[in-house]
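Sequence of Glutamine-binding periplasmic protein (Streptomyces rimosus subsp. rimosus).
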Amino acid sequence: MTASPTRRPAAGRSRSAVAAAAAVAASLLLLSACGDQTDAAIAKREAAKNRDPNAPLFKLLPKDVQDKAMIQVGSDISYKPVEFRTNGKVTGIDPDLADALGKVLGVKLNFNNATFDTLMGGMKSKRYDIAMSAMTDTKDRQQGVDSTTGKKVSDGVDFIDYLDVGVSIYTQKGKTQGIDGWEALCGKKIAVQRGTVSHDLAKEQTKKCEESGAEAISIEAFDNDTEAQTRLRTAGVDAVSSDYPVAAWAVKSSGGGNDFQMVGGAPVKAAPYGIAVPKDKRQLRDALKAAMEAIVKNGSYGQVLKKWNVTDAAVKEVKLNGGS
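Predicted 3D structure, token representation.
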């Protein structure tokens, strides 16, 4: 029988379809071999590798955390030396402490980057289980109160206190303009990270300036401390305030130590950093507190603080909600 002309193209299309299918299958096999390389997938694989039911405190964790072997941590990863990136890897005081906590808990603490002032909302919306981001333990945060308006904005959090730090001021090197403390900032410009204790102190001080008849402080608030440093480096402001470990790092490292200088003497308003845990996650909170106590006892806590030159900030006792 003579082949129908209409069948030859159909046969051709069939061969093309087979070839295309083979190509797709090969691609899928290649992808399967390489694995999903998204951050979430990588973190999940790391969690599976780190899951250790025999870890000393694994049984203290909630069942859902045991199963997923991961605690999602919200953090502003731009705050050297507390948390920052080096060649894409999250490093610093908090990530190193988190690794030590993970070892005694038998799970991975996975850091997720966000701006500092969104961390509370991120926990409320369940994007993060906890926040670990040089966050000062305050009564307002414990109670979910906005420190500026005094209004309740969330259910609040519990804090596991793990470092005692204060707030410092620094200026351009050799250009202090007479700034030797907070009282000398009246009429000056200061850069801070939005939502931090430094931001609160600057707002408190500018009220004092005005009440005394002096000129108000011009406050510029940024999403992260790096932006505040850049503003000072380019002489857009007269000073920057940040937590002492961050200020000390900036003064030592920026421009090889030639950009900034510390002013104002000893850090003020010393207060504890705390791991923030939503109040409805009491079992997770208690497991993390036990883990922090364990790494203090086994020495890994001290090793981390020594590595980052912040041993003076060590807590004598791991407290719950010790801030004021």
